[in-house]
Structures
1.
Amino acid sequence: MEILKVSSKSLPNSVAGAIAGIIREEGCVEVQAVGAGATNQAVKSVAVARNYLEEDCEIVCVPYFANVEIDGESRTAIRLVVKKQ
Amino acid sequence: MEILKVSSKSLPNSVAGAIAGIIREEGCVEVQAVGAGATNQAVKSVAVARNYLEEDCEIVCVPYFANVEIDGESRTAIRLVVKKQ
């Protein structure tokens, strides 16, 4: 599954456009965020993507914790599996 | 639908326990967060609740924006509809 990495500086409208495009093509996508600011942008992006897709399909998300390595350090990321309902 | 209000100081394990309890009783619950820190705790709470419920059911969440009034000021909240898949 494709993984979109979101930071605290990501623009929700842009990420939402990417989510909507991948959902239309593939039916599901993962969004990864590390830290509170990034997680906030990720959730807002899914909320916006829901609006972008409202005429096509309903989407839901499933959050889970994932261990990722960033610059040689182990961090806990939040991943959101976004998929058609 | 019952609404759980989450702040940046909420403990994900405690909120997750509340989510799991309401999901078992009612099948769905809303989680409301205002601000990045609160939204982060809300998403972590859903991820933990998923683990608490894994032997019973799979849960998904649907994020949306809601206008709420806090201390007389209008704020944009993130609400997560959490429901059985």
Note: The mean pLDDT of chain B is 97.
2.
Amino acid sequence: MNGYELEDLPAEEIERLTERATALAESVRGLIQTTVVTEVGDADLDEAIAHIRAAQLLLSRKTLPGSFGVRFNSDGTRRTWGNAVTGTRNPVAPPVVLAHDGDRTWSEVTMGPAYEGPPGLVHGGVLAAILDQVLGSAAEHAGAPGMTGTLTVRYRHGTPLGPIRAEAWLDRREGVKTFTMGRIIAAGAVTAEAEGVFILPRWARGAAAESLRPGVGDA
Amino acid sequence: MNGYELEDLPAEEIERLTERATALAESVRGLIQTTVVTEVGDADLDEAIAHIRAAQLLLSRKTLPGSFGVRFNSDGTRRTWGNAVTGTRNPVAPPVVLAHDGDRTWSEVTMGPAYEGPPGLVHGGVLAAILDQVLGSAAEHAGAPGMTGTLTVRYRHGTPLGPIRAEAWLDRREGVKTFTMGRIIAAGAVTAEAEGVFILPRWARGAAAESLRPGVGDA
């Protein structure tokens, strides 16, 4: 098993699953944010932990054998719900919801206290993770999907916790390499700039690689 | 308020708080991992969500007004529990626990399904976040704490989910800039290499900056 699964689910079933996955993940995201800032005493803490363990026990009754991977539908759509940055059902992910506007790929997302690095600021590594995803998506949007080869982030200013915008665009293509650029904008200023080199997977070379498809060797 | 707080807590109280924070965060980390892979039906899901909301309500009874920031103790130790990569009480953080061995700063940590990018592999952005933290800690360990100026990550191979080792060391210092290098090792191979430039905060320049201290301007 290589983590890619082809599932032929009807659109309404996917919609229903998405709704359920979102409800669950959103409840856990709320819990995460509160966990970081809670100041309650031992009694409340113990009761909260008991609830959390009960929830985990219920969710453990039936699980996937490994990680979520990528699920493909016969209509060509795919679900990457486990993705650490964009995953709908991954509470670690903000999640980053990607949009495309002309040649620009972007996302607007709010960074809560769970994404803190220096006091009051977003962790530089979290920004790097978001940039990796947005720059990679820009490469794919330009018709050249790939694995990250190199990612460079230049930090210009601290990025305050709160709403941020990440955006990326194609710079150029050179053979199997696609170069994209991007940046983080927060409170009206560019706080970080990035360059990414994405490498076309071996299995997609020589083919019309218009979208990521199930296959091996793309690591 | 700049997010740095000086707290004069006795050592045993800090130990007790650490134990409680760890118990809470670990329960939420377990819940996160299960959330990503659960396949239970609606009844279990609804009951789990009810428990999660109950837990959040309990923890919400008393919270910090903003993010966790950095708490200093009079003995010079500090707590960065909210940190998205190393935070003891931040369930988003694996957490990365840093160690120093001679001139090397390192961490060994297990990447569960919540840190997935490509199927079965760690998200490249998560690796960048860990490298940012470990390279920055290596700069601080070398006596030159700083904010990340530039971070470059070169991905050599996919990094399988599971145990990884991140390590970093000082390369050189040039004025207010400290250059560190590092890498990720997984399943016996170097899967990513990184270079970081860390900038000494303005407030620490000209002073004996042996450790990060409360102050403004370090953004």
Note: The longest helix of chain A spans residues 11-37.
